[in-house]
Specification:
Length: 203
């Protein structure tokens, strides 16, 4: 297991640096070791599946990513429970993949399920709630539901300010996304104000 942990850390370092092709074999090797050492019914198998799935999504293999995430989700629900934080995270990651392949209705359902789990497990003001609200806002925006998207992003920003501070990089992303939502709704003046603020935080 110590070898697997090291491989995961190396894989994440490559992933953080943008070298996703290099990360994938490391994370796959860690998964293989954990299957052998820990057995199929250990929670770390679900974690490793989610890790490999993340890299597959970034590498453009949406089908492979989705299959691994559905496997991870089933394991998290069975081993850890419906309302465990890992279950919420896997639902969120699965929603990202489903949204990327264009099924916004299914993605919305998954994001909302993730939100319910995060709120129950972590509370309403947790950064994971903000992150999932941001993801939800993107599919709402794609559906033309601008007011709902703006409401989701406003909640994400309120949580971000309270928990992470006003100059956190995630808050910059939420602010820029909110600018896009206002622009899509036709409020160019508000969009410009928000865009300037988001760029100020990012710099």
């Amino acid at each position: 297991e110590a070898v697997a942990v090291t491989l995961v850390e190396l894989g994440r370092l490559h992933q953080d640096a943008g070298f996703n092709k290099r990360a994938e074999p490391l994370l796959r090797e860690a998964l293989a070791i954990r299957r052998k050492v820990l057995g199929e019914e250990h929670g770390e198998i679900a974690n490793s599946l989610t890790g490999v799935a993340s890299v597959l999504r970034l590498n453009g293999d949406l089908a492979g990513s989705e299959a691994m995430l559905r496997d991870s989700l089933e394991r998290n629900r069975r081993i850890r429970g419906e309302d465990h934080p890992n279950t919420g995270t896997t639902l969120h990651d699965l929603a990202l993949v489903v949204a990327a392949r264009g099924d916004t209705a299914a993605a919305e359902s998954l994001f909302r399920q993730a939100l319910d789990v995060h709120r129950k497990a972590l509370g309403d003001k947790h950064p994971n709630v903000a992150l999932t609200q941001s993801g939800l806002s993107r599919v709402l925006l794609a559906q033309g539901r601008y007011d709902e998207a703006i409401a989701a992003l406003n909640e994400a920003m309120d949580i971000g300010r309270a928990v992470m501070g006003r100059d956190h990089q995630l808050l910059a992303i939420y602010t820029i996304n909110l600018a896009s939502a206002h622009l899509a709704r036709g409020d160019a003046k508000q969009a410009e104000t928000l865009l300037r603020e988001g760029l100020r935080i990012r710099v």
